[in-house]
Specification:
The complex is a heterodimer of chains A (248) and B (290).
Chain A (H helix, E strand, L loop, with lengths): L1 E12 L2 E12 L3 E5 L6 H8 L9 E9 L2 E2 L5 H7 E4 L10 H11 L5 H14 L3 H4 L12 H14 L4 E5 L7 H14 L4 E5 L3 H7 L2 E6 L2 E7 H6 L4 H11 L1
Parallel strand pairs in A: 3-8, 3-9, 6-7, 7-8
Antiparallel strand pairs in A: 1-2, 1-4, 4-5, 9-10
Chain B lengths: L1 H37 L7 H6 L3 E2 L6 E2 L2 H32 L2 H16 L2 H19 L8 H25 L3 H9 L4 H12 L1 H17 L2 H6 L17 H8 L8 H28 L5
Antiparallel strand pairs in B: 1-2
The chains are: A alpha/beta (248), B mainly alpha (290).
The complex binds adenosine-5'-diphosphate (ADP) and magnesium ion (MG).
Amino acid sequence: MVKFNIKNLNIWFGQIHALKSVNVEIEANEILSIIGPSNSGKTSFLRMLNRLNDLHPEFKMSGWLEFDNEDIRKINIEDLRKRVGMVFALPLPLPLSIFDNIAYGVKMHGLKRRERVSEIVERSLKQAYLWDEVKDRLDVSAFKLSGGQQQRLCIARTLAVEPEVILFDEPCSGLDPISTAKVEEAMLKLKKDYTIVLVTNNVKQAARVGDRTAFFLSGELVELDKTEKIFTAPADQRTDGYIRGKFG
Amino acid sequence: MAIRKIKEFAIEKLILICGLASIFFVVLIFLFLTKEGLSVFKTVTPFSFLFGKSWYPISEPAQLGILPLICGSLLVTLGAAIISIPIGVACAVYIAEIAPGKIKEILKAGIELLAAIPSVVLGFIGMVTLVPWVKTTFNLPTGLTALSGSIILAFMAMPTIVSIAEDALYSVPKSYKEGAFALGATHWQTIYRVLLPAASSGIVAAVMLGIGRVIGETMAVMMITGNAAVIPQSILVPVRTLTATIAAEMGEAVVGSEHYFALFAVGIVLFIISFIINVTADLFLHKRKF
Ligand SMILES: Nc1ncnc2c1ncn2[C@@H]1O[C@H](COP(=O)(O)OP(=O)(O)O)[C@@H](O)[C@H]1O
Ligand SMILES: [Mg+2]
């Protein structure tokens, strides 16, 4: 099933033409990795999928963007963002306890019953592989956690509102290899129930977790194919150059 | 090289001297205030001074109880706070979050303009517009009431509250806001569940500084509160504040008289109140929650 159907998408921030005629179909329950040098439009692409770009005062777009066969602009924006969750590059806990960080989004969407909220908090923390590390101290400040734990907390927070898609924007860029491995493990397990789009500046990470990989360059989607194909026999020279360069 | 070092040294010392001088003057003022003010306690006890119910400084014998003045100041300040805090904070939220570019600029300019109006002018405007309005609306014998004072002072507190609260809202990391939006929060939910709590210490500081300004304000209050030194039973009666008392009576008090010393003691009380408010504001401004 196709989750996102993107046709001839162009976007601008003021004068900057950030995405140029991008065509992509994102399948349900796949992990789509997105690689490319900085300023190639990876984040801008990701932020189209939950319409976070709309916050930019000079944002403009043209083209076609469908989510579950529905024009994304026709979907109520809060519903869309609930269904398409996002995890940012820097872990971004709110100045609240571990429990409240996760309960926050759930409560915001109207769930009030305490037992139900506790259940969801526990389930989400387990899904994000954080439960065992924090179950005895749910009421301490989220800032007491390590960077890797904070990032998994943010994943749990996103999972708590029960999205269908999770967008990751360089989720491991600030993490050590062990924390990175834990986040990747969580992603691979989540694939069963969620569609995942992962922007990463780490080509090896794309190779490890992506079912398919897309390569962006200067706002263009250069190539999109099965991950093995991209990493063994890319069709485009530029993809090849980037991957070789990155593998050094 | 040597010349540069000497220059450096001289500038450093100059700055040090300026800094020390300002501290020195503050200490000097404080000492003078205390020396003059404390002399009043040769004739009245601190308790009967602070809690005495009548202020008749020139009757024989003089009655020097400042409770009516303290009540007057607190009542006017409280009224001003109740009016200016919600409006000021709402205005800051509007400017920081909602207003489109043009309107934002206009509003900010307007607020700055409001801050630039001299208090005597505000008092004058209040006298000819607000006072008659209060009189007819509430059907009172006089419009010179605590309420009139509160309303005018609210206008004075507003610019401080708005601009500092707005700064506090701006300094909330943009990523918090995006984080809330990404979870499907509406704009309003983002404002009151993320932005306001994250900016809360700055907003409290804004409020305290606004109130600090109100409590020290003299001219406008003197012009429109009626200056009756009685303990107010409601907000619709004339009151007299600590500041107005000093301003109105210092000119006629005989230097070295009991009255003269009492006015200095009123100054000490005012100083202590402002000091507490400013320190509280400072604590909140520098409080780091995380
Ligand atoms: N908020 C913004 N305002 C203006 N330009 C932006 C903004 N976000 C991104 N851009 C521009 O869009 C282009 C793509 O950026 P981005 O999507 O962040 O790239 P990447 O995530 O691949 O590093 C860049 O040229 C960048 O300068
Ligand atoms: Mg990016």
